[in-house]
Amino acid sequence: MLNTLINKRYLIKEKISSGGFCDIYKASDIYEEYFQTKREVVLKIPNDKLLNKEDINEFLFMEYKILRQLSHDNIIKVFDFGIDTNLNVPYIVLEYLHGILLKDINKNNLTKKNIKKISENLKKTLKYIHKKKIVHADISTSNIMLLKNNIKIFDFGVSLDKKDTLKLDYKANYYINNKYSSENILSGKEPTFDCDKYSLKLVIKELNRYCTRG
């Protein structure tokens, strides 16, 4: 995929990570470069296993639709959705985040004040998401990024929009994060707001466990 031009617009520069469903790439928007307003973006593209599924376009579009409803400083921004018909590849274009995953930070450097601020921001953000009738369903330290003066929640790939009739088959259990998932999710039931609250509680508990400074 490196140096591939997606839909004659997004040039893939670097692979950032691989998840259960998708690969994440850093890319440049050649339209932005042409108008000298250079902007780094991220492309989320289904991995080879998922690309063979008939409903993959619909699957990725669900995440795009959810993110399009969310406008919050602590939630990753979505810019575009498309399908490269030549490569037969659907994709989502997201903002590029300059930070470090919560799971990768040196927890020994965290103070109680840091943790309190992070926790309060996460709780407020989750409350906003739930107010939109959306369940994230995969809150974990892998899906939260710590920026210089902010935090960002991302990866809404298995999220549930309670207003939408189109939903994932949660009984498949193929996306479960055993460390942070509630019993409801582990048993293959449809995720609820309480599932998110449970996961966030575990994230905050983990941060507090490592805190040794005031």
UniProtKB/TrEMBL annotation:
EC number in record: 2.7.11.1
Organism annotation: Aliarcobacter thereius
Recorded name of the encoding gene: pknB
Keyword Methyltransferase annotated: no
PANTHER family per the UniProt record, alphabetical: CELL CYCLE SERINE_THREONINE-PROTEIN KINASE CDC5_MSD2, SERINE/THREONINE-PROTEIN KINASE PLK
PROSITE patterns per record: PROTEIN_KINASE_DOM, PROTEIN_KINASE_TYR
Enzyme class: transferase
Keywords: ATP-binding, Kinase, Nucleotide-binding, Serine/threonine-protein kinase, Transferase
Protein name, per record: Serine/threonine-protein kinase PknB
